[in-house]
Structure formats: C-alpha cells, structure tokens
Write a structure and sequence with these properties.
Elements lengths: L2 H33 L8 H9 L4 E5 L5 E4 L1 H5 L3 E2 L2 E2 L2 H13 L3 E7 L8 E11 L2 E8 L1 H37 L4 H31 L9 E4 H18 L3 E4 L6 E4 L1 H17 L6 E11 L2 E10 L21 H6 L6 H11 L3 E7 L3 E9 L12 H5 L1
Parallel strand pairs: 9-11
Antiparallel strand pairs: 1-2, 1-7, 3-4, 5-6, 6-7, 8-10, 11-12, 12-14, 13-14
Helix pairs in contact: 5-6, 6-10, 7-8, 8-10
Bound molecules: adenosine-5'-diphosphate.
Length: 391
C-alpha cells in the first residue's frame, strides 16, 4: 500500500474513534437529561458535603444500616453511635422506611437508658437511593424544657399570688366582723395595707421579670453615671434603713459610667441594698461601693453591696438567684420579700452584659457584686443630647 494511502487510512480511523467517543458521551448525557433527575437521586458524596452545612441534625445510613455520615448536630443528638445508628427506635424506623420506600415525618423518641436522658426529636427519614436512607432531626427537648420552665413559673406565680389575695379576703371579712371594735379594725386595716402592698410589689416584680425575659429586655440604652444609680438606690432605701436603724454607708467611689437603662440598673442596686437591710440585724451596717476594675484586658464597673448580716450558707448561694427561692421563707415574708429580687438583679445584669456574684458566710455577712461593662467613650452616637434639648 502506498505510504500516502496508509497515512490517510490511519488518520481517518483516528478521526472515527474520536467521533465515536464524543458521540457516546453526548448520547449518555442526552439519556441522563431525558430521564431527568429522579427524586432522591442525589449521590451520597454530594449529600455528604450538604449535611455538613445543615442546620438540622443529619445522618446518612447505608443499605446495611451502617452510618455513612453524620454531622456535628446529629452527633450531639446521638443519631449515631460510632458507625451504628444511635438508638433502637431510630434503627427500626430507618429499616421500615427502606423496606416500604415511604418517607417518615414525625417524632423520634429515644427512651431513657442507663446513663442517657430520654430524647424527643422531630424528624424526617426518607430513602435517597439504593437502600441509602437520610435522617434529618430537630431537638425538641430544649423547647420542651423552656415550656416546662414557663409552666413552672405560671404555677409558682399563681401560688404566690394566692397567698396575699387570700389574706386580703380574710382581712376584709375580719374588719366587717369587728366593725364595733375600733382597735381591732385599725389592726386589721394595717395588715390589709401590708398585704395590699405585698400584692402590688409582687405584681410589679412579675411584670419586670417578664419584661426582662423577653428578647428585648432593655427599656432604654444611654450612658449612665454609676454614681447616679447608687444615689437613686440609696434614696429609695432610706425609709426601710431608718425603720431598722441600719446605717447605709456610701464608700467614696471613683466616677465611672456604663451603658444601659438607668431605672433598671437602679432597681437592681435597690434590690441588693434592700436585701442587705432586711437580712441584717438592727443597727447593722451596709456599705455600698462603686469602682472601675480591669480584668483580662476588659474594663468593668463593680458595684458592691456589703452587709454584716445573717449571711447565706454556701449550698444556698447559687439557688438564691432562682425565682421565688428563699433560704428562710418566714423571714423573707416578714420583711416583705417576694423571692424575685435577686432573680431580677441577675436578669438586669445579664441584659447589660454583666453578672452578679455573691460572697457570703453565715453569721458574718454577705457581699453582692454587680459587675457591668464600663463605658469609656464620650457619648453614644444615637444618644439624645440633653443640653440642646433644654435650650
Ligand atoms: P426576697 O424577696 O425573699 O428577699 P430575693 O430574691 O431578693 O428574695 O432573695 C432570695 C433569698 O436570698 C432571700 O429570701 C434570702 O434568703 C437570701 N438573701 C438575699 N440577700 C441576702 C443578704 N444580703 N443576706 C442574707 N440573705 C440574703
């Protein structure tokens, strides 16, 4: 064969091969296009990357019940235990979905096991392809816990309200029955006034607490001089201090400023000062200081309220910040307490980016420290200019 012809045949063969490969590829692509994406036909490697970004707990289970992939949230929900499905009920569900091909939407409940809490998840379990199953889950236990706390609060509030309301009803009857006896009437009326004041205080504190537990707890946000907060709290406490002959001393403080709601902050300090007065003996001393402090490169203002009163046992010191918790119910009631004061202080501190701590020893006294982030700037950009307003 002449070399030119041989070369020509070779070139044509090569071209035919290339065309064949192109045609096969096109044909395959066309077939894929025509058949269209089947539901759930996404390949597991794609899914694997997707579940890392899922805001739900997510897990892919292979056709032999082996866990192919689980994201961090899924792990936190115990969807998987190593390479196995995390709990019996979920494994049964995965198998059922695989056998029936029917997706599942509903609750996934894991029974309590030794060393593990019961969990309630809401989830979706559906087939992906070739026996592979996808599990998506949301943890409902947290929202149920919030519900439980709310129910608990409502139950406590109802109970706490019933006491003064019941007392008021009884006192009203007693006044009617003793209408001829002026001394008795006066005595009952005084008690009636005390119970009414308690009821008003309780209702106000419940409203404050509800507000503080909302998503937007601060009533206003301005630059506040700490001295003004302390002055306000001391002015509000003067009467009760005088009644118990307690001297409230204001230690010399360094001027400092914080950002927040001045009335809420004054409420917080007032609660601490009132407690210091109530839980101290007659003629006791309460010292209030405010000073800037730096810790780990951050600037704070510490407002300290120290008393030499009855003190708080160590094991009670965390619980006193819970709503309605009192170390000594009788004493709290006698001093007009509601059990909500410190819970309010903690919420106010938190809403201002701060915290409240206690140091205390029984029979020695207590020091409560309200720590707030210090404001070192000039003025807030959106703060109204008081001086120009006055012009
Ligand atoms: P209350 O209205 O009963 O004072 P609080 O929430 O303010 O409620 O305080 C909870 C409990 O903490 C009080 O009942 C009291 O037992 C204890 N407590 C608070 N402050 C002091 C204090 N300065 N000294 C001793 N005990 C205190």
């Amino acid at each position: 064969m002449p070399p030119v012809l041989a070369g020509l045949i070779g070139a044509v063969t090569m071209l035919a091969l290339v065309l064949l490969v192109v045609a096969v590829r096109r044909g395959l692509a066309l077939r894929r296009q025509l058949s269209g994406p089947r539901p759930g036909s996404v390949t597991p490697p794609d899914l694997g990357a997707a579940i890392d970004f899922s805001a739900s707990g997510a897990m892919i289970v292979g056709s032999h019940d082996e866990v192919l992939k689980v994201n961090e949230l899924g792990q936190a929900m115990s969807l998987a235990r190593g390479s196995r499905v995390g709990f019996k009920e979920l494994l049964e569900l995965v198998r059922r979905v695989r056998n029936s091909g029917e997706p599942f939407v509903g609750r996934l409940q894991r029974e309590r096991e030794p060393g593990r809490e019961a969990t309630e998840l809401s989830g979706r379990v559906f087939p992906v392809s070739d026996g592979i199953i996808m599990v998506l889950a949301e943890d409902e236990s947290a929202s149920r816990r919030v519900d439980a706390v709310r129910r608990d609060f409502v139950a406590n509030v109802s109970h706490e309200l019933k006491t003064p309301i019941g007392a008021i009803a009884i006192l009203a009857e007693a006044i009617e029955a003793a209408s001829d006896d002026q001394t008795e009437v006066t005595r009952f009326v005084e008690r009636l006034q005390r119970e009414t004041a308690r009821l008003a205080e309780l209702v106000n504190q419940i409203i404050d607490l509800s507000r503080l537990q909302s998503s937007d707890p601060l009533l206003s946000r301005t630059v506040v001089e700490v001295d003004e907060i302390v002055d306000e709290a001391l002015a509000r406490s003067r009467e009760s201090a005088a009644k118990r002959s307690v001297s409230v001393i204001r230690a010399k403080s360094v001027p400092s400023r914080v950002v927040g709601d001045r009335w809420q902050l004054a409420d917080a300090v007032t609660n601490l000062v009132q407690n210091a007065i109530s839980y101290s003996g007659e003629k006791a001393r309460v010292v209030v200081t405010a000073a800037p402090v730096s810790e780990d490169g951050e600037d704070f203002v510490d407002i300290k309220v120290a008393d030499n009163g009855i003190g708080i046992p160590l094991e009670e010191q965390e619980r006193i910040f819970e709503r309605f918790y009192r170390v000594d119910y009788g004493r709290s009631r006698d001093s007009g307490g509601t059990g909500l004061g410190l819970s309010i202080v903690r919420h106010i501190a938190g809403a201002h980016g701060g915290e409240v701590k206690v140091w205390s020893r029984p029979h020695q006294g207590s020091t409560f420290t309200l720590r707030l982030p210090a404001f070192l700037g000039e003025a807030l950009p959106d703060e109204p200019d008081d001086e120009s307003e006055g012009d």
